[in-house]
Amino acid sequence: MALxxxxxxxxxxxxxxxxxDHMALKIREVAREHxxxxxxxxxxxxxxxxTSELEQEIPDGLFTAVAQVLAYVFQLKQYRKRGGERPxxxxxxxxxxxxxxx
Length: 102
Fold this sequence. Notes:
Blueprint lengths: L1 E3 L9 E4 L4 H12 L8 H10 L11 H20 L20
Antiparallel strand pairs: 1-2
């Protein structure tokens, strides 16, 4: 899964790429080539994959989990600039509603 979120223009994060197997590897490869963070969060990725469409906003029920990932990315950026203690993300504890889990 690849998401875009532009604070000034997007009301919510938008799905810009999704895939499994070879396509998922390609998404990761392109992200790394463009210095985009790759955050492993399998439960969230599965939920997004099964409940979202390309170029659409993420489902309402996944806002909190995606917000946690976005906050983590912001923390990583700060960590890389200033050092200190590396932030942690616990994907297994993300608030994904049961009806959206896959």
